[in-house]
Design goal:
297 residues; alpha/beta; TIM Barrel; 8-stranded mixed sheet; 11 helices
């Protein structure tokens, strides 16, 4: 499928803070998922002065069928990266900082220690900012996840990406069960972190499979959710099976709300970091409301 439907709107204009963000991340030698994963929203977000930082280098040890991030054998990680991420976040005056990474199966802890150091540096130097991390599955190693959680991120995000049946095609080095385990382990932590995940549509999934995945995510303790349209980054990647119309995204949003998700974004152009600060704000307002709303007069 090469022809985009009319509801897929990619904004290519560069204005506002685009040049500032571009020069900043380039000057500091930082990677962003916006560039490396060829996010279709890059112009919109950078124009608004926001970006999602991608740590642990630009080469991923996994080859997922949907992802544009380059795969290969990574070099030794840069332990000065956390400081530069914070420098960039401060220069951009970010109130909500989103940090993700490539998968680093070559490292004993999967890169968890660098995630933790980045979180701690952000909390130390920008105490008023909230921090969201979008982590890999760390190969299922619980101690790596614990290292990240002990640094106290405000949001722990890990995308399940697609339905159970399509996992081996879309993310062959990952596991549906492993992802659910990571999310459930994060949700069980006290004090509680907001747990988030995301799924792409248009890969050949069926409606009952989508609903099953939403239910599995909610049962695992996910509070926040993103649902977006898969767009193939190139002809070498998994082809788009179908462009899902906006009304279907609206229907899945209603289903997710009925299942109990606190905040979500669902639409063709939604990605993992879409409205990230707003979703966290909605989650916190709801959680603050629970005791008061549940009190008996």
């Amino acid at each position: 499928m090469s022809r985009l439907p009319p509801w897929i709107r990619i904004k290519w204009a560069t204005h506002g803070d685009y040049a500032k963000v571009h020069n900043l991340v380039s000057g500091l030698g930082l990677n962003t998922v916006c560039q490396d994963a060829k996010c279709p929203n890059i112009h919109e977000c950078w124009n608004q002065g926001t970006a999602t930082f991608m740590i642990l280098g630009e080469l991923c040890t996994r080859t997922c069928g949907f992802c544009a991030v380059k795969a290969g054998k990574p070099e030794v990680f840069d332990d000065d990266e956390p400081r530069r991420v914070v420098d960039a976040a401060m220069s951009m005056a970010l109130r909500h900082v989103v940090v993700t990474s490539v998968a680093r199966d070559d490292l004993t802890d999967g890169g968890a220690s660098i995630f933790a150091e980045t979180i701690r540096e952000l909390k130390r130097r920008i105490p008023e900012a909230t921090v969201e991390v979008l982590v890999p599955d760390f190969g299922g190693v619980d101690t790596s996840l614990r290292t990240v959680l002990e640094a106290s991120p405000d949001v722990l995000n890990h995308n399940i990406e697609t339905v159970r049946r399509l996992q081996s095609t879309i993310r062959p080095m990952a596991s549906y069960g492993r992802s659910l385990h990571l999310l459930a382990a994060s949700a069980a932590r006290r004090p509680r972190v907001a747990v988030k995940s995301g799924i792409m549509l248009g890969l050949g999934e069926q409606e009952d499979e989508i609903v099953e995945t939403l239910r599995d995510l909610r049962d695992a303790g996910c509070n926040l959710l993103t649902i977006g349209q898969y767009l193939a980054p190139s002809g070498r990647h998994v082809k788009v099976a179908r462009y899902v119309p906006p009304e279907e995204f609206d229907r899945y949003a209603r289903i997710a709300k009925d299942l109990g998700f606190d905040a979500l974004a669902s639409g063709p152009m939604v990605r993992s970091s879409y409205r990230a600060e707003d979703l966290l704000s909605t989650f916190r307002k709801k959680k603050r409301c629970v005791p008061a709303c549940s009190e008996k007069p």
